[in-house]
Specification:
Structural class: alpha/beta
Number of helices: 14
CATH topology: TIM Barrel
CATH architecture: Alpha-Beta Barrel
Helix content: 40-55%
Number of domains: 1
CATH class: Alpha Beta
Shape: globular
Largest sheet: 7 strands, parallel
Bound molecules: coproporphyrinogen III
Oligomer: single chain
Amino acid sequence: MIFIEACFKRQTKYTPTWMMRQAGRYLPEYMEVRRQAGNFLNLCKNPELACEVTLQPIDILDVDAAILFSDILVTPLEMGMDLKFEAGEGPVFTNPLKNEKDLLSLSEDSAKNLTYVYDAIKLIRQRLDKSKALIGFCGSPWTLSTYMIEGRGTKTFAKVKKEVYSNPSFMHKLLQLLSDSIKEYLENQIKAGVNAVMIFDSWASALEEDIFLEFSWSYMNEVASYLKSKYPSIPVILFPKGVSGYLDKIDGNFDVFGVDWSTPMELAKQKLGHKYVLQGNLEPCRLYNKDSIEEGVRKIVDVMGKEGGHIFNLGHGILPDIPVEHAKYFVQLVKELTARS
Ligand code: CP3
């Protein structure tokens, strides 16, 4: 698996590529399966259909890794929180957490309850070509806590940050509960057959430096070291989004650092390239225009070279109105421009 080789900084015949949100709404084939499922959560809970949409981008785009089709919010869902995906609005929890007392209502068995995910992984691994890696994932404790306390997407993070500054012990209890749950969840994903795992910290960008280190990074790091000590051959990818100002403080036992589109690749390489393989970071909106794709890919290849230490990806998820042709062009162009002679 060229993707796994690259995660361990070994030279490969070209730089492997995949895209965050590669199984999603820009693919008409995905929309058809989601229609069959009825809604997004049904799709996540149906191993046969989740397997089908996971494999779609492999067949259509020929990317080097599949990412399990699911969502980070299945963790709080299986802790017992009521989750709805409302059209045009994204995820909504009808009873967001308000205080420490509410933690008592959360189940510690979420990882045990997520059997539909492990069933999907087993099916995918059976049907996925042996040369392609399967990536498992979860949300970081901090990013999950933002949805559990805000109840939905937010611009200000006012509710959750109010707790960070006024009630840190409530936050630490919640973050520890989430860390314990995702350790077990990722471990179960590994046992079911994933070849690498990625932790998405999409809302790292909401926090100032010291608070990011204390409330987000330390928990992700704890989960990563736990997994690395037990499963050294499984690459761990961490993606704290929007932390370009804090790269000097990034340290820990993991393999790949996900670089978001707002972080200059030169800077990431200078600060972290000697310690970690870097994944990223084409600005996803470049996919609207073929010339912009080529310009962006060439810039990244100029910085990262072809000698290993890099996995190509977008700097965040692909948007639903991107033409499939452009996504294919991106993947093919990376292969062409990074081929070792
Ligand atoms: O292809 C893949 O990358 C794998 C599947 C995947 C999904 N969500 C499917 C999905 C992954 C890895 C995620 C992660 C996820 N989910 C994150 C972290 C990454 C990021 O994007 O920052 C977050 C914050 C979520 C929570 C979430 N799920 C939101 C905010 C939304 C609404 C987004 C939107 O664009 O409407 C979702 C829904 C969701 N998750 C969709 C998909 C394909 C769209 C659902 C649909 O079909 O309508």
